[in-house]
Amino acid sequence: MTRHLALLLSLGLLGCSPQPQPADNASWQEDYPVQYDSWLTTEETTRQADELERRPAMVVLWAGSGFAKDYNTPRGHRFSIADVTHTLRTGVPAKGPDEKGYSASCWTCKSPDVPRVMAEMGEENFAATDFTDQGLQMANSIGCADCHESGSDALHLPRPHAKNAMEKVNLAFEKQSPAMQGAQTCGQCHVTYYFQPEAHNKVNIPWIFGSTADEIERYYDTRRFYEWLHPISRTPMLKARHPEFETWSRSAHAEAGATCIDCHMPKRTNEDGRHYSDHNVGHALENFDLACAGCHESKGALSAALAKNKADIDAARTEVEDLLVKAHYEAKAAWDAGAEWAMMDSPILDIRHAQWRWDFAVASHGIHAHNPDEALALLAVARRQVNMARAKLELVHEQLNVTEVVYPDLSSKAAAQAAVNMDMATFNAEKDAFIEQVVAPNWPAAAMRGAPH
Q: Which of 47, 119, 313, 419 is least enclosed, having the fewest CB within 10 Å?
């Protein structure tokens, strides 16, 4: 019996065993037709940009992790299952009994079917399975059940990791205002997290000390946690993942009481004159009159301010990215010359901390609108830290008589991936075969929506 067939039988997906109904988004259509129809329009948000092609330096910064393979801007919520299925970051099935693929935790925020499967299997048991093992279960893209109780408009927080995190920072869901509850339903996924190795890679939000970059770093450093060892510099790395909830919570918007819902799901009026929230979840500026005009007088002035914020952040991040690439390769030169850990501990720690702050600033979608001051402050500290690392590495080079450092070709994504010895042809061929032979004929239709690959 093949491993795949055995899994299907164990989950009751073959034979006549009755299965619980999935969290079907369509079950809200009859009672909430205008909200449902506006949610369907998230399928119109199809434009994606290849961020690694735009910024090849990120390939080097993320070398050794899946993010160096593939990193695109997001599409609309209706594509959540397809995009996580097709990305190279989730890999392919394990090739043998001694190999393990990526954790099923990669599904956690991509479908309302996930809380259902977690309830059946247990949160840690779900996380312990491979990503590809759960594909048959994921029929519904991000939608109604992610935020609302079954068949109702009542808000809830169905993902255990989010509920636990909110309680850690004294924001228990049941004790919040409706506005804050709405923000938390977004925040259960638009938040940074990691996979907890001691809990079978269960999703965990690292807020024990708080939710700032400094406090999360303290948590990781206290635990001696790292996600991967950088293959160039041997730095134990951290990864920030779209910390929108954290950065919003310290913003002028939050102080004014403006939440994700106010800006990205503004109130509209239907043909009967009734108000409803637009579930397209689009860019706020596109709905200036509905989402922004209550606080901002001029769309032109706001657009100009946002453009300046973005330009300032882009300039700062470009400088930090360049410095970090140099630091990784300067560390490599030291190792190659015979450096020992006693000489490298301090500069390596500076690289870790600098890249963490860079990542926390740039991984947050819309940071130029949500909290540009925090982004620029983080990048300023990152610049100081990476410069400190490079100064220390220069002293190590003097001790070891290092006279030359070879830096990588960053002229394109392909050049950067070749520089860090990534076999992209094999990664792409394996993924293409998996999509064609397994996903397209067997998985729910949502996995092929928009055929991004």
A: 47
Q: 307-346 burial string, b = 16+ CB within 10 Å, else e?
A: eebbeebeebbeebbebbbbbbbbbbbbbeeebeeebbee
- What does the pLDDT look like over 200-219, one tens digit per residue? 999 999 999 999 999 999 99
What phi and psi values does residue 88 have, to the nearest 5 degrees? -65, -20
Which residue, among 103, 330, 370, 94, has the nearest Cα to 234 in the 3D structure?
330
The two structure tokens encoding residue 452: 């991004």
Largest CA distance in the chain: 78
Average pLDDT (186-192) is 96
Residue 210 — left, alpha, or beta (φ > 0 → left; ψ -120 to 50 → alpha)?
A: left
- One-letter amino acid at 139 equals A
Q: What is the pLDDT of residues 403-435, one digit of tens each?
A: 999 999 999 999 999 999 999 999 999 999 999
Other CB atoms within 10 A of residue 124 CB: 14
**Separation CA 400–CA 441 (nearest Å):** 58
CA 440 to chain centre: 25
Element (DSSP H or E) covering residue 199:
none
Residue whose C-alpha is closest to residue 247's, from 110, 73, 379, 56: 379
Q: What is the DSSP string of 96-124?
A: STT----BGGGGTTT-THHHHHHHHH-HH
CA 396, distance to chain mean position in Å, is: 36
